[in-house]
Amino acid sequence: MIRIFRLYRAISAPGKSVGENLTPNALIFALLLVLCALTAPTEQLWAQQAQPDDTSLFKQRALYRQALDHLRSGATSKFKASARQLQDYPLYPYLEYHRINGRLNHASAKEVNNFMAQHGDLAPSDLLYRRWLKKLGKKRYWTTLLQNFSDADYAQSSDTELRCYYLRALYGRDQRDKALDWTTDLWLHPKSQPKACDPIFDVWRTTARFSQDIAWQRLDGAIQHNQRTLSRYLLRFFTGEDKRAAEAYYRVHTQPRAIKRHSRFAADTAKNQTIIRHGLIRLSKAAPTEAATAWQRYATTHSFSAVQRSIINDHIQIGLAKDGKFPAERERAALTSSFAVQGLAEAALSQQNWSQLLYWIERLPAGEQQTKRWRYWWARTLLQVNPVSANPAPQPNPQQMLRELATQRHYYGFMAALQLDQTPPLQQGLPEPEAINVSSNSHARRAIELFAVGENLNGRREWYRGLDAADNETKRKLGHLARGIGDLSLAIRSANLAEAMDDLVLRFPIALNADFNAAAHKQAIAPALLRAVARQESAYQPDARSSAGAQGLMQLMPGTAKLVTKRARLPANYAARLNDPKVNIQLGSYHLAWLMERFSGQRPLTIAAYNAGEHRVDRWIKGKAGMPTDVWIETIPFRETRNYVKNVLAFTYVYNQLLQTPAILLDAEERVIRDT
Questions:
Q1: Residues 173, 166: contact at Cβ < 8 Å?
Q2: What is d(CA 552, CA 581) in angstroms, rounded to the nearest whole number?
């Protein structure tokens, strides 16, 4: 009725003619509106007024933030008053989550369990519950812990700290045998366990369950997982001959040449066999000829099983092959394991021994042989040699293999196109799907609001929970929704989980144009390369932080950021602003350009150095001048860096296409490694 009254006043304003207020046509339209409004049912008008608009959502978000401010400041009455106004807001349950989470030290079992009964579907609710249980454990509230965590929960839990508290609770409430029996498996874990486990471990070691044989099992696991600190710690639990064996095992792990002292390991015992096998495998990587000589003697003096002999021999043959000494014809027949065949193929590739590579590729397991990687190298090998194959099957056509690969949007597809001197266009991407109605996905709905109020961590938790329950098409729609609200990393992640490999809009976003273009111009570096690095490093997540401490879009370490700031003569405070996309792009682009200059414009070397450090790359290219770059990339010692270089090169190709600056994968001067 208020709107009708305002319209009436506009039409009949005193002192003004109709023409001064409304045109004749507008007047007729206005009168019709008045008539319709007067005859419309009251319920319809009320429904129109009751629909929330952007302003009301804005107010709800502001009120939510205000409620949390009241909670943090201890203004409980004001918090509750604000909360009562938000009962229809998607984040209303999060007010209770924050209230409980803020007082876990004092929360009662009834309080926490009531919360879980009402709001257990919130993404962080399980985490809150585990935190509460651990606090019970820290305070030794064993009875309450046992009432809220069961044997079945223990069996399903992967939280070692909580499992140890549970065993301590069992022990503290007269279930000692059960607690100590279960402790054995926890203690045998090959990596260091949380401090919460120490009390139950200390008691367990005083029982007959603990022995030097058990200690040896854990030492063996720790050494196999290269846990040196734990391995040294475990040496204290041995005595007598067992101690000498344990110390010898650790010494051989850290100094593999110690295994050459045959007299030290002359006794044909199970422990010595374990040490010899491990030592020979370690030595085969650093000095395979020495390992082979030592093995010739041990093979005749010790009763290794057939499986053990095969494992040792496989490692030594691969080590020798990496030194250019491939097995003789009579030795090949014994090398049939997937590990040996693939290892020998890798060695042949690193040595560019094309005839050996052809032999071993033909013997790869069928599934491995048909991967993009080995199809590419099979074709490359066939182009290098005129094969006289022992394989009776006809040889595939290498040109056809490359043509098939070149149709695929992948590193090896782009490499295949390079071999064919082609610049294939990207395949047609998927059309954008219809917008999703998030009202049917409570997790996505809450995530959107969490992002809006700045709770990004919980927002991501809700988003991933929503993806878990969605089919691929819904995941893709959620990806486009994430893109629409500006979260590109979630868009990329959603596309990957949806297996939407052809949705280029999601997987390769174009954003921050001004910042990337300005940085590319200043540093004389291709915008596509900068975007590819950001895509690989953080998936465009501005506040990304790695386990090593790298930060921001282009994942700079704080130390690197300080060095780059100094080199680029930028303000000193830039190194502390790595979550600012503009600053991060400036520093990352300068660092990339500096590395490009250092490695004479060779992008593969530059990309490898950005990931692994320039000094490592210096070692990796020593003596490699003239090596084909695709071979060099395959032989990078670090798997992470190897895959990193492949991804960034492939992403650069894609971005060049999307930015309408098409380019081949490697320039002519980048196709072989050059001295720098």
A1: no
A2: 7
In-domain check, residue 9: yes
How is residue 604 written in tokens? 């593969």
537 is catalytic: yes
Active-site entry in 449, 537, 597, 670: 537
Domain containing 567 equals 513-670
State the distance between the two ends of the chain, measured CA to CA, in whole angstroms.
Answer: 80
**Structural domain includes residue 652:** yes
Residue with tokens 């014809």, as numbered in its chain: 329
Tokens of 430: 């998927």
CA dist 582 to 209, 554, 579, Å?
A: 59, 11, 9
Q: Is residue 100 part of a domain?
A: no
Q: Which residues contact 667 (CB under 8 A, 6 or more apart)?
A: 603
Residues 473 and 571 in one domain: no
Return the closest-CA partner of residue 307 out of 334, 344, 280, 269. Answer: 334
CA dihedral 521, 577, 461, 507 (to 10 degrees): 10
Rounded to two decimals, the pTM is 0.86
H helical segments located in 453-485: 456-468, 472-484
| Among 190, 209, 228, residue at a domain's last position | 209
Q: Which two tokens stand for residue 29?
A: 């339209």
For 469-523, the pLDDT digits (tens) are 899 999 999 999 999 999 999 999 999 999 999 999 999 999 999 999 999 999 9
